[in-house]
Amino acid sequence: MPGIVIVGVQWGDEGKGKATDLLGERTDWVVKFNGGNNAGHTVVIGDEKYALHLLPSGILSPGVNAIIGNGVVVDLEVLFAELEALHARGVDTSHLRVSANAHIITQYHRTLDKVTERFLGKRQIGTTGRGIGPAYADKINRVGIRVQDIFDENILRQKVEGALDQKNHLLVKIFNRRAITVDEIVEDLLSYAERLRPMVADTGLLLNDALDAGDVVVFEGGQATMLDVDHGTYPFVTSSSATAGGAATGSGVGPNRLDRIVGIVKAYTTRVGAGPFPTELFDENGDFLRSRGFEFGTTTGRPRRVGWYDAPITRYATRVNGITDLVLTKLDILTGLDQIPVCVAYDIDGERFDEIPVNQSDFHHAKPILEYFPGWKDDISRARTFEDLPLEAREYVLALEAMSGTRISVIGVGASRDAVIVRHDLVD
């Protein structure tokens, strides 16, 4: 199974970085195929904790080739800040390659992101303000700046001029901000050119050659299914394809090269930003999950919204992505609860919905129909086989598996790298 896609099942922050790291020793290549530095992966190796935002988490595994694919939008300042921070901690990053076709986040993208979000007022989406959406909008509008453009000053200047023609009118006349000059953008981007040049490659060709050679390639998705621009809770979504289909378009390989789709799902649910969240908790149970699970954004530091496990969302994600295996993370966070509710369906104006309603307005008004499972008190962080878990924890996992439409192959029982139970191998 050489092509393995890792996607988030819920609204992100499920622990995808840990899952990628779990595969690291048998992985030859790790590819980030969507998003930018608006997402974060936290990876714990021994006593060391690493927070990554733009780099694929496979960068931490010695000997693994790390790729930033064409579907990513790259903030060059963030890229080099992360690389320098890893260098300072002794991490070898010489195996990183960046797609020549990846788009670049510029100063004007960041500025527009922030002022547009403020302008929306009560209708704010909850973006991170890092320029991700505006960079993707420029890509679709065909006025984007790609990585390869910074190696030709004449082309770069022409493209920046074209992009700023409209944007300065918006900034000055609508948002009452100063105009941004072509020179300041060009000068900033050119300052990264020589450092970036050795990293840039035809990454699609590299990946196809690797798959032809039988290498194991992991495609690491940012954000998650419910934040996908097509399949998520639009408009409260990210600006890229965070589902398994995005792995093909965002990396330059054909969909027939993707052999296994691994969905990462928490034993409860979280999300950051605005939008519908049927199982959201506003009581002491929410405080318990947030504090025990340290549910604060890796990138933003914002407290995450928290709620119970939502089985219809997992079934939806399984269907949309073609998920073959689930990795259930943070099971240990539920330790100590007397009972654990699970959302099995929704009540919308008195009508039961066993699946996510097609109408977004209905989903906004959905109330969870809960089924209750007995909790457990024993510390499970040292469990390494399914049989090591208390009976109640095993029954909870099996119940989630039965509701989810596919098997739960790996269970996370702690923050450390080895705190996992493997029921089915993700590679073989």
- The level 1 CATH classification of the largest domain is Alpha Beta
List segments where confidence is low: pLDDT < 50 over at least 5 consecutive residues.
Answer: none
Mean pLDDT across the residues is: 92
Number of strands: 20
Beta-strand content bin: 15-25%
How many domains would you count in the coordinates?
2
Q: Globular, elongated, flat, extended or rod-shaped: what is the shape?
A: globular
Q: Structural class from helices and strands?
A: alpha/beta
* Overall CATH architecture of the largest domain: Alpha-Beta Complex
Q: Can you count the helices?
A: 13
Assign the CATH topology of the largest domain. Adenylosuccinate Synthetase, Chain A, domain 3
The helix fraction, in percent, is: 25-40%
Widest beta sheet: strand line-up: 9-7-5-2-10-1-11-15-19-20
- CATH H-level superfamily title of the largest domain: Adenylosuccinate Synthetase, subunit A, domain 3
Main β-sheet description: 10 strands, mixed
Terminal Cα span: 6 Å
Radius of gyration: 22 Å
Quick synopsis:
IMP binds at residues 13-16, 38-41, 128, 142, 223, 238, 302. This protein is of the alpha/beta class and 428 residues long.
